[in-house]
Design brief:
The protein is mostly beta strands. Helix content is 8%, strand content 36%. It is built from three helices and 14 strands. The chain has helices spanning 72-76, 121-124, 168-173; strands at 6-10, 16-22, 27-34, 49-51, 61-63, 67-69, 84-86, 98-106, 114-116, 132-135, 142-145, 152-154, 160-166, 182-186. The strands form three sheets. Strands 4, 5, 8, 9, 10, 11, 12, 13 and 14 form a nine-stranded mixed beta sheet that branches. Strands 1-2-3 form a three-stranded antiparallel beta sheet, with no helix packed on it. Strands 6-7 form a two-stranded antiparallel ribbon. The longest helix has 6 residues, at 168-173. It starts with 5 loop residues before the first strand and ends with a strand.
Length: 188
């Protein structure tokens, strides 16, 4: 049996590809590559944005509740790399703010998140300084984010619930239909 030669490359865009050498055809044949879709690229939608690949006609990048595109021009050109910023004039340090639930999410990058295994989801929102929270480890523990939310995406079926801090006005805007992925969770 002849030896099998393989090679794996990473392109400048972060794409990884694996090839095997076909001795008879004298060429490399590709048999694996990643990522498979736009949402697989790290920070594809920038800070405070998330990727939703479910509707291929629409731009896959969306801003979390309470945020808007940093560059509307970039967003209109389907370039979400600049991400999202808090809406102008919005403050989450006044009375009446709360959290909006975004369902079926791959939670943002946790490298800068705080984990508290002694808290459950019900007590997560009491960490009033957090920008977002979610449960960890299947309901045992609490993840909180205090800076930008990066590398999140939604799924059609699976995923976790992520709660995003918004101001009172945004909470008022979110009177949600039954099938919406967002739900109001006021703080006390």
């Amino acid at each position: 049996m002849p030896p099998i030669f393989t090679r794996m490359i990473t392109t400048e865009t972060g794409m990884q590809e694996r090839f095997t050498w076909n001795i008879e055809a004298h060429r490399w044949i590709g048999f694996w590559s990643a990522p498979k879709e736009q949402c697989d690229f790290y920070m594809h939608c920038g800070p405070n944005g998330y990727c939703n690949p479910d509707n291929p006609i629409n731009f896959e990048c969306k801003c979390f509740p309470g945020f808007e595109p940093k560059s509307l021009q970039g967003w209109n050109l389907r370039d979400g790399a600049g991400g999202c910023v808090r809406k102008r004039g919005v403050s989450t340090c006044q009375n009446g703010e709360g959290f909006v639930k975004v369902a079926r999410v791959k939670v943002p990058d946790t490298s800068k998140a705080l984990v508290d295994m002694s808290l459950g989801l019900k007590h997560c929102k009491d960490k009033s300084y957090a920008n977002a929270y979610s449960e960890s480890n299947g309901g045992i523990g609490c993840l909180t984010w205090h800076g930008d939310l990066v590398d999140a995406r939604t799924y059609a079926i699976a995923g976790q619930d992520l709660y995003i801090r918004v101001d009172a006005d945004e909470l008022g805007l979110k009177s949600t239909p039954k099938n919406s992925i967002r739900q109001r969770i006021p703080t006390m």
